[in-house]
Model the fold of this input.
Amino acid sequence: MPGRFSDAAPAAATGALILIHAGLARFILNADQASVYVCGRPIRWVCSVRKQFGVPCPTCGLTRSVVLALHGHFLWAWWLAPGGAVAVAAGLALAIGLLVLAGLQATGSSAAAPFRSRLRRGALAGAAVLLAVWLGGWAAAFSAALHRR
Amino acid sequence: MSSQAAFCTGCGVGTGTGNRFCFNCGAAADPAAVVCIKCGVALQGAPHAAPGGYPGAPATGYAPPLGGMPGVQPMAMDYATWANRVIGYLIDAVLIGVGMLIIWFIAGSLLATLGAIGGEGMHGAFAGSCCLMIMLFPLATFLVGLFNRVYLVSTRGASIGQGVVKVKVVDASGNFLTMGTAFIRLLAQAGMGFVPFLPLLDLLWPLWDERRQTLHDKAVGCYVVNQPQ
Done:
């Protein structure tokens, strides 16, 4: 059965947009373990929670971690904030999955419906893992900061 | 073909002998029938429904939106207009703004108080509070959404904004969404917020979609339709 462009378009557009933005972010942003650089200029924002209380907030290090992961430094990213590394990996996997789904839908393949179902379950599982890793990483960093005080 | 025919001329299956009814015209149909003998609509995947409607269907006259569901034929449906959806969305956005203000005041006051105890005062507490500001919108969207877009949508079919513009969210069978489905729909919408321009594409998608679905509607297979007047 031939597929239809309108069936494949939502998955194709979403997947492509995720990949395009990941590519743009990789091109514009850079990071080291101390700060994020936009077109080579460092961002010097300081987290008010860390400044006030000496402990990290849940988002501390996430931007650096995401940017490092986008540049392929997944180990550094994991060490800095595990949630960022998992978010990038999950986002890229989702984008590729959506493009594969769009291809199956465009060709009218009978595998499209089961693949869509698996992709949905995978996305939910990925979101759950991401949440657990993000909060777990923050709890570990919080605990380490408390011990250092 | 006569409506009294014992066998369908299209597929050869016996008709009208079971407790299955066509969801389009209400005619009796054999459980194994592929198409309705009266109106010719494909019955594959159709629910076993009583004549005149489908299980749980509101009495609006619209048929279940079967397009996009595997093995089911698309049917006409009274989809909500894009303009109505946007107006409802903007009303819901105002609620999110209120939620943001409440969280900002609570968290800001807490930080200011603790900062003052620590000797830095309010200025020090708010200076560079980037994390609070960054987290404010997704947090408010999620917390307000749990009530407005999960609880209300699954219990009465519409969020507050959707209720004002008289539209509601239904699944492929015309029923209200379950809490789980509404929650996944909220997660999909919130997740799109992390990719620049994807929320805009999501909002604009009904303009060219034949079933006027947003991307987060498609993620869970639901539809937004006009409420009966």
Observations:
- The two ends of chain A are 66 Å apart (CA to CA).
